[in-house]
Amino acid sequence: MKLGLLAGAGPFPVRVAEAARRAGHEIFVVCLRGFGEPADFEPFPHVEERLGAGGSIIQHMKREGVTHVVLAGRVKRPSMLALLPDVWTAKAMARVGVAIFSGDDALFRAVAQVLGEEGFEIISPQSLIEDSTAAEAGLLVGSEPDATARADILRGIQTLRCLAPLDVGQAVVVQQGLVLGIEAVEGTDALIARAGDLRREGPGGVLVKLAKTDQEMRIDAPVVGPVTVAGAKSAGLRGIAIEAGRTILAERTATLQAAEAAGIFVLAVDPERFTA
């Protein structure tokens, strides 16, 4: 297959490109201006396009013979004014309607629909990278969480499951039973920083990051990486709980090494079976 990579911010898209090449796939990268760094993709055929130039992006991929598309990296949802949609993008937005103004799940399902209508098959980045998720529940690094930490994790799971039908957030920070913050449009890193400002005396809190119940996992799987760990350390958190099989470890080795050095546990959980 010829793979088209829509690359946002962070190191993860480069890792996806490298994994695809190792697997023998031809790859063409569209670096999204203002998010991805074109210099990071010098080893690969690539172009840079702005997010609102959907028509040009589609033309580039079709001209290159792309058959499958993978999306990776952080992209902040722009305002309509900042997006400046071209004709193709404006027509696509009209086709998907209110999804453009809905939560992330609805938006990403709409993106998948539009790309499918153009003849592309969407694949997930985690399907290209071996061991990108924790296959089974269990402790990945650090000390086994004590009763207080496990209660915080359970509280986080319950909170996120209640919010999932509203398409709000993938992450929550809980300390000593108190929800210090819930991820919204600001993203996980900003959530952690905000929770750090609100932390209480005593045992540190826990970041819980799960996929939503009906999340579009090919496009918007939850991700943690070294930056997450660094933020957790600065915020005084003592643990990170991720969903087994569904949360991506963007740089698995570096992430777990950083957590171990920081004294932060990383626990993979099955949300439906976890108990305090």
UniProtKB/TrEMBL annotation:
Keywords, alphabetical: Hydrolase
GO MF entries: hydrolase activity
Statement: the UniProt record of this protein carries the keyword Transmembrane helix: no
EC number(s) on file: 3.6.1.54
Annotated LpxI N-terminal domain residues: 2-131
Keyword hit for Transmembrane: no
Signal sequence interval, chain numbering: none
Protein name, entry field: UDP-2,3-diacylglucosamine diphosphatase LpxI
